[in-house]
Each structure stands twice: as structure tokens, then as C-alpha cells.
Amino acid sequence: MISKNQLGIIYMILSVVCFSLMDISVKLMSNSYPIGQLIFFRGFLGLIPIFFIIPLNRYKNLLETSKLKLHIGRAVAGTFAMANLYLGLKFLPIADAITISFAAPIFATIFSIIFLSEIVRFYRWFAIILGIIGVIVVLKPGTTMFSYYSFFPILFCLGFATISILIKKLSKTEPDYLISMFFTIALILTGCISYFFGWNEIKTEDIIYLFAIGICGSTGNIFLTMSIRKADISLVTPVKYLSLIFAILSGIFIFGESISYLTLLGAFLIIISTAIIFRREAIKKVKTTMVRQV
After folding, report:
1. What pLDDT score was predicted for residue 145?
2. For the chain: N or C, fewer Cβ within 10 A?
3. 74 φ/ψ sector (left φ>0, alpha ψ -120 to 50, else beta)
4. Long-range CB contacts (< 8 A, 24+ apart) of 1-7?
5. Domains held by the chain: number
6. What b-and-e string marks burial along 205-225, b requiring 16 or more CB atoms within 10 Å of the CB?
7. How far apart are CA 67 and CA 283, in angstroms?
8. Going by C-beta distance under 8 Å and a sequence separation of 6 or more, which residues neighbour residue 158?
9. Angle between the 4-29 and 242-253 helix axes, to the nearest 10 degrees?
10. Among 252, 170, 215, which Cα is nearest to 46's?
């Protein structure tokens, strides 16, 4: 019989596969379609998986909530983050864009200090500094490999950090499907607005990739949530680093990109940093649980 932790790892692997397929599809399509159009398909087609997890008794009052402002804030921050991730995938080597995006938990920790007044001790401060160094290494400032487009994934990290703060507040009372629904609606509205700035005619051979952006992106989010609910986050988080391997391999074999040793070094530092952060979070959670039990 499969344990909860084993099931959580399986869900995380499925999440990684889905997100990697989305990233590859976005990069493949970003030269043919405006980012706003890709965001629309991520939202519109992303509705399909969400409808499978909505309880039947909630369809009549699907968007009813007492925390509308928080939902809107999360949706706007999520749309901002996704737009910048897609721009990063468009203009940067896929390995660089994904590596920098893995620094998101570092920025989330910084935001938790500022906005949630969380007490951060030596290990997490060390992790934050190490992660920032990793990001700087990937950015490659002062070299011919430096690109201003690298700031798009950093903006994604800032958006993700905002999302983390808002979801911490929303998840206490709001179901996952409702949080996802508001976010998806925001993506659709943003995509619709971008129509007035120009969309391109859809080619038949591109339909499968556009579906992959929406279906895989939304399904990846669902599997990610299921993974975290089933298993300890410190256990399943290392599995998420498979995304970097997928990014490096797809960069080499699909997009013909060369991988810089600085990108690999930065990725290593960021992985160590986020691993420390998640480990300290797990320890803090255990201590909190023990205190409550006492």
C-alpha cells in the first residue's frame, strides 16, 4: 500500500512533468504569439482541470467569498508573476529562466520578514544570502552573457513572494479550487485585454502546444497542491528540482542552447539555499505542533 509520503512524491513528480511541458510549450510558442495571447490560453484552457475538482454543490455559488479583496490581490500578483515568467522564457535560455525562478522561496522568506513579522534566525539568513549570491551568479553581471531580460524571472519571484503571503491568509478558510478560479479568471481577462494590442492567427500545428500551456499549467498547480497536502513539504521539495534537469535537457536538445557553467553554479547555490529554507520551515512546523500539543 502506498503511504501518504510516497503518494506526495508521485504527485510532485507529476507536477514537475506538467510544469516542464508548459515551460517548453511557452518557449516554443513565444516567437509566434504575443505573451498576452499565451496568457489567455493558459487561463481559458486551464479552466478544464479545475472544473474536475469543484464540488457539485458549489457550482451555484462558485465565486461566493468573504475575502474578495485577498482573492483579487492573489489573482493580480499571480498574473503579474506568470507574465514575467513567460517573458523570461521568451527572451532567455530556458535553463537560466527556470533557475532564477527557483529563487522564489528566498524572496518569499524576505517578504514574510517584512509583512508577517516572522522571526528569522541564522540558518535562514544564511540561506537568503546564499540564494541571492546564486541569483547574481546566474545573472552574470559584468560579462558579455549578462542580459537585462534576466530581470523578468526576478520579477516573477517578487510576484510569487506576494502570492505566498496572500495564500497563507486565504488557505485558512478558502478552498484550493476557489483560489485557482479567481487566478484563472484574472489570466483570461488579462489575455482578453491584450487582444486589443494584437493577436496572431492560430496555426493548426500550434494547437497542441497551446492546449499544453493551459492544461499542463493548471494540472501542474493541482498536483502541486495535492503533493503538499499529502506529504511533508521538506520531503517533496527536492523532487521539484527535477524541473532544472528538464530545463537543462530541453535547452540542449530542443532549443540548441549551450549551458553556462555559471548557470550550473548559480543553480547549485539556489538549490542549497531553498533546501535550507524548506528544512527550517519543517523544523519550525514540528516545534509549533509540539508546543500546541503541550
Report:
1. 77
2. N
3. alpha
4. 4/230, 4/231, 5/230, 5/231, 5/232, 5/235, 6/231, 7/230, 7/231
5. 1
6. ebeebbebbbbbbbbbbbbbb
7. 30
8. 81, 107
9. 30
10. 215
Residue with cell string 497563507: 168
| Per-residue model confidence (pLDDT) at position 282 | 63
pLDDT in tens, 100-142: 998 888 888 888 788 777 777 788 889 889 999 999 999 988 7
For residue 138, the enclosing domain spans 4-293
What is the radius of gyration, based on Cα positions, of the chain? 19
Q: How many C-beta neighbours within 10 Å does residue 244 have?
A: 22
Residue 291 has pLDDT above 50, yes or no: no
In angstroms, rounded to a whole number, what is the distance separating the alpha carbons of residues 182 and 35?
A: 20
Q: How large is the average pLDDT for residues 26-44?
A: 97
Residues in the chain: 294
The x, y and z cell numbers of residue 181, run together, are 478560479
Q: Is the pLDDT of residue 290 over 70?
A: no
| C-beta neighbour count of 40 within 10 angstroms | 25
Distance, CA of 106 to CA of 39 (rounded, Å): 25
Give the Cα separation of 289 and 243 in Å (integer).
31
Give the other-Cβ count within 10 Å of 18's Cβ. 22
pLDDT in tens, 5-16: 889 889 989 999
**pTM attached to this predicted model:** 0.88
